[in-house]
TrEMBL record:
Keyword Thylakoid: no
GO molecular function annotation: hydrolase activity
Highest taxon, organism lineage: Bacteria
Gene3D superfamilies to which the protein is assigned, alphabetical: alpha/beta hydrolase
Keyword terms, alphabetized: Hydrolase
Pfam families the UniProt entry points to: DLH (PF01738)
Organism lineage: Bacteria, Bacillati, Actinomycetota, Actinomycetes, Propionibacteriales
Protein name: Dienelactone hydrolase family protein
InterPro entries: AB_hydrolase_fold (IPR029058), Dienelactn_hydro (IPR002925), Dienelactone_hydrolase-like (IPR051049)
Amino acid sequence: MSEDITASRIKVGELNAYLARPTAPHTGGMLLLPMLSGLGKQLRTYAEEVARAGVTALAWDPWHGPTGDELDHEQLRGLLGGLKDPTSLEEQKVLLDHLFDELGLAKVGVMGWCLGGRYALVLAAHDHRVANCVAYHPTVMPEPTPAQDEDAIALAGEITCPTSLIYPGADHIVPLESFKLLQKALNKRESAPSVVHIYPGAGHGFMEAGRQDQEANRLATKLSWPQTLEFIRATVS
């Protein structure tokens, strides 16, 4: 059943964000961490779909204004050099605080795609308030890059909440080795379950609207997204 929702851009302190909420009473929320395109139309659509499933969604803007709606891929890649782990984690925790304290939610999880998928894992390892962690094709290399202070693979074993890891078999960015290392780290945990999805033939960012011309991407989206929404409801409701 689809919920009626409200949705708008908001400010949380100095941070830009996008808030989508069911109009019916509810107690669960999700912090959404975007892919390279930032707080663009695609992420806002995801937020609204989460809200229609009965869960508040608050989306982070890593670029403080620009989005993939206005910038091309190369311009967006040029912003990556300014994205630092300590500052990003601080901003994400401000948004978590807003979900708990200002919006009064009882349980909040975190979900991310691509670079946001990596940050979802890192944040969940550092902040054990989160009730779940969903990482769609997280951009995690076998070793952290020089610009990354946090080792997502090493941290994965410290996540204490139920975690869903989604990997597309034809990912041209994240090597299979990274996925296997993440899966191994998650499976070693004894305190929380891991749900792992593998979609052969699907590509990195397979859920994005512009990638639905490929059958493998359409199938991966059709199968994974409803399961993700059920996972969210089961862990924050």
